[in-house]
Specification:
Elements: E1 5-11, E2 17-22, H1 31-51, E3 62-64, E4 69-74, E5 80-85, H2 92-108, H3 122-136
Length: 141
């Protein structure tokens, strides 16, 4: 499972950052940096879909670097979920699918949430924290 998740981002279909959370002691970003990274990822993802020689390409799903791995999951609605983690982290696909499940359960089913707007849902945030801690194998450290 995920050994060390640094950040989690959720981007709406228009490219706007609707959720951001730091989970690691490394890789902390300020608000402007998180907005820039989300915007850059949205643009790269869209360009890769158009330039791909493979038919039916849905964009970049994994970016591996020396200091981090970035894994992306795009829902059918166009909402993108991506996580930045320690290099070589296993299980990021299943982690993102679980995050999507929490998003559906706690955000989309919330009658007070407006689609495409920033996510402000305490139960979603608490459930994400529990999911990330469980995947790290860390309890309250």
């Amino acid at each position: 499972m995920a050994s060390n998740v640094y950040n989690l981002f959720i981007i709406n279909k228009s490219g706007g950052l609707i959720f951001y959370k730091d989970y690691g002691s490394l890789g902390r970003l300020d608000t402007n940096d998180s907005l820039r990274l989300a915007s850059l990822w949205h643009s790269m993802h869209a360009i890769s879909q158009q330039l791909s020689p493979t038919l039916g390409c849905y964009g970049i799903e994994l970016l591996e670097a020396d200091t981090f791995d970035l894994r992306c999951f795009q829902a059918l609605t166009g909402t993108k979920f991506f996580v930045v983690a320690e290099p070589g982290t296993q299980g990021l696909d299943s982690l993102l699918k679980n995050v999507y499940g929490l998003y559906v359960d706690y955000v989309l089913k919330n009658p007070f949430y407006e689609v495409e707007m920033p996510i402000r849902c305490e139960l979603f945030d608490l459930s994400l924290t529990q999911l990330i801690r469980k995947d790290k194998g860390v309890i309250g450290r």
